[in-house]
Amino acid sequence: MEGNEVKTNHRKVALYLSIFPGAGQFYNKQYIKGFFFLILGASFLAVFYDLLNIGYWGLITLGTIPMEDHSIFLMVQGIIALLVTVVGLGIYALNLLDAYRNGKRRDEGTEIQSVSKQYHNLVDSGFPYLMITPGFLLLIFVVIFPILFVILLSFTNYSANNSPPANLVDWVGFKNYIELFQLDIWRNTFLNVFSWTIVWTFLATTLQIAVGIFLAVLVNQKELRFKKTIRTIFILPWAVPAFVSILVFAGMFNNTFGAINTDILAFLGMDPIPWLTDPFWTKFALIMIQSWLGFPFIFVMVTGVLQSIPNDLFEAATIDGASMWQKFKQITFPIVMYATAPIMITQYTFNFNNFNVIFLFNGGGPAVPGQNAGGTDILISWIYKLTLQQSQYGKAAAITMILSLIVITVAIWQFRRTKAFQEEDMM
Amino acid sequence: MLNKRMLLLLGIIMSMVLVLAACGPDRESSDDSESNDTEDTEESENSEETSDDSGEESSDGISAEKPEKLVVWADEEKSVGIEDAIAAFEEEHGIEIEVSELEMATKQKEQLRLDGPAGTGPDVLTLPHDQIGQMAKEGLVDPISVDDETLGIYTDSSVQAVTFEGETYGIPKATETPVLIYNKEHMEEAPESMEELYEMSQEFNGDGKYAFLALFDNYYFAHSILAGYGGYVFEENDGTMDPMSLGLNTEGAIEGGEYIQKWYEEGLFPEGIIGESGGSTKTGLMEDGQVAATMDGPWAVQGLRDAGIDYGAAPMPKLPNGEYPQTFVGVKSWNVSGYSENKEWATEFIKFIANKENSKARFEAVGEIPPVQSLIEDPVIADDPVSKAVAIQSERGVPMPNIPEMGHVWEPMAGALQLIATGEQTPEEALNEAVDTIKTNIETNQ
């Protein structure tokens, strides 16, 4: 074997020949496959030459002549060119790898597999990959493409003042990110919005989860009658579209005319509270509303999990003399959390980006002095305002990137810690 | 070993691709075959279409070739107003007019951004004038060449509204501005001055009733007061506005802010109409008959009519300093798309549909007041109290600035006015801060 390896060096020759697609395969006397790679390579260049040419040129320059070159379209084309290149390079690497492997087989004196043999191999062992491929290609354009677009956008000066086709957009590097922290007003706004987003996420979500679990456990008590009716009532906030509920709440919380101030608080003998004009009270109201809107989902989910906890656990605990609280802490809560933790985490990410409730309740208001966003704007609603009301696309993209980074980091970290994702048995 | 080699190879390939990228489009030989596929096909279509009528070009005094058809985007539910004019134009010139309705305030702009480059956009579209500056900068609308005689029939403020950087970008179609709308049950006649409203408020208010309500935390409405005392948005020199020279924290503007604060401070305007849902709350109160008078646009009238309120309308009453409030005037205009292949014919068309007769017909069909000077006295408008009030108030008001920088003004001003309304800040502080914010935002967006 070793002697063989020294004498022939087919693998290297085949590899280098393969720089021209197909040549390595010809060298290995795999003519059909070589022909296939040759055709593939030639047609790739022929079909995509224009796209790659214009795409890369556009991606680098973002156009040179206003009105004729549309920077944003060029950027889109550039990203497509990039993706096509990646796919092309993938196939090219396959070509190189194939030539190298078969050359190695020849070096080692093993028989080279025929095309039909390889085909059977592929169908037998690689069937799942074969089936995934079209979906994966689609995924590249549906998922990767928009992400790349936002990333690239955050490095441009694309804004209302600088809009194609009459103007060209330019690359500005990290200017958008730097300005976000450098200019007083932007830094203030960013920090305020960011900290409120975090507070909002934790308070609203934790509260809705706590209420959901509490009520589910309560309703699940054996002694309780009319369970079905009670459950139906608790699911109602979920059944009514949140969109409608929030708008109704906006009316109910109106400082002067809303039912909360005029009826409920007045009945309790309390002074009216400035729900919509004082940032603190608006935040308070928002957290309450989101808890109300969000708990039924947790309630339903936990109710389902509770059904599946074997009764003997509780019976054994009762015999051992465990209290209600001990039973909850040692049995119910761990099992519920084990089964539902991933969904609980998505609740946090959901509220982190819960645009509806913020925007519909008070439009991110009330105003606060010295910043660019309203008092209850979270990052996502601020981005909405920046893009759709102020047309600061570049800056909004930069904030989007920061926001995505946060969500991604938290999500990955949390999911990795969650036992439910570790594919092992619980007990 | 292998991995290193592979990386080297990939590197070579990548650099080849990048070298390739430096080529760019080959503009000299095949300018439109590569980058402008769509335009190319469009051109060929057009040349086919126009070859038939090439003989009759000169008869209309327009040098451009006559297209087979013009595509017109009209405002939603408003195209009925131009049906007859279109028929007349089609008959006279033999050009087919294809009308489609598209919501004016946002849809047309967004759609044009996509359809224009794709070659499926319109020749003529219709826009609120405050979008003209932005769209002109983006190259989405083109200036039109019209003589002074054509523009002379429109009110000065409406012509000013469609002028951007010294050029005319459209023909005024309709005008609107907030006026005083009152409930005849509580108020027999419109008051002469704001002071009368103020005095009436002190007696009339209570038990959920209000003598006068206005959304002065909304800059669109509040501008009338600030400007009435001498404030302005941007300084204007020879028809060009200077975005860095703001007049929103001048002595006059601050005085206006103080006047606004007075209404909220004394509880004459309830806290419940401040902020996001303030508008709907106010409308609700008005339609319930709880309010004697309100400042609102002609668009509010339909709701009052449906609610069975016996309403009247008048221009805004005088401020304590003896000036009329200078409301923001919005002008809707017909514009020519920057992507149109038939700009001259499109211009000819919009001149025709917005001429005096067709404007009048349009008013009768859809009720939007044309800013045609001679029509203000016309019984068609003068006999309708709301239209008359709007027409008069339009002449007293100022057109909203149409430069793109105006987009940075609304939010900070709304914030400042809200802080004034809730008493969080003095008008001086709030307005100074708003002007600072506006300036920073304009600067960072240069």
From TrEMBL, chain A:
Could you tell me the membrane topology recorded for this protein? Multi-pass membrane protein
Q: Where in the cell is it found?
A: Cell membrane
Checking PROSITE patterns in the record gives:
ABC_TM1
One Pfam match, given by its short name, reads BPD_transp_1
Q: Which GO terms describe its biological process?
A: maltodextrin transmembrane transport
- What does the record give under GO molecular function? ABC-type maltose transporter activity
According to the UniProt record, one GO cellular component term is: maltose transport complex
Q: Where is the ABC transmembrane type-1 domain?
A: 194-414
Question: Is Glycoprotein among this UniProt entry's keywords?
Answer: no
Q: Establish whether keyword Disulfide bond is in the entry.
A: no
Q: Where are the transmembrane segments?
A: 35-60, 72-97, 136-155, 193-220, 232-253, 284-306, 331-350, 396-415
- Which UniProt keywords are listed? Cell membrane, Membrane, Sugar transport, Transmembrane, Transmembrane helix, Transport
Which InterPro entries does the entry mention? Answer: MetI-like, MetI-like_sf
- Can you tell me which family this protein belongs to? Belongs to the binding-protein-dependent transport system permease family.
Which PANTHER family does this entry report, sorted A to Z? GALACTOOLIGOSACCHARIDES TRANSPORT SYSTEM PERMEASE PROTEIN GANP, MALTOSE/MALTODEXTRIN TRANSPORT SYSTEM PERMEASE PROTEIN MALF
**Full protein name:** Sugar ABC transporter permease
Q: What is the lineage of its organism?
A: Bacteria, Bacillati, Bacillota, Bacilli, Bacillales
